[in-house]
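Raw record, unedited: N-acetyltransferase domain-containing protein
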Amino acid sequence: MFTTLDKQHLPWELLLDADPDKEKIQMYVDTGSGFVWQVADEIKGVIVYDNRETEYEIMNVAVAPSEQGRGIGRQLLLHTIKHLREGKNAQNKIIIRTGSVSSAALHLYKKVGFVEVSRDIDYFVKNYPEPIYEDGELLRDQVTLELMI
């Protein structure tokens, strides 16, 4: 079941799975909005987005490791896209950024309609104090994808 993200009771473990920088997460949670996927009283997935002047940006999508591969991430994305399309004003697109080695995330984003528009070479190396590894591979480049709404 989808519920609105409660900023007073954040699912930190999930949020930190997708972004290891707690300060950055706190900044975009403070200004953004989001949803959680809950089963009983347990949060299984979370999505956070920010409302910009001409676009929305999805800042964080995370699903509990035990629940990955069950469509929760896809449902969170589709629910958020529908919500943003219905509430848009001047915004004409949704952007999302991820690591270039995040193959499952890239596949999911493209499957729901996002297209790659740019790459920021060495973004993660330059902007995070500690190296980040995904599936044993050093995360270097950031990929930006967008979906027109």
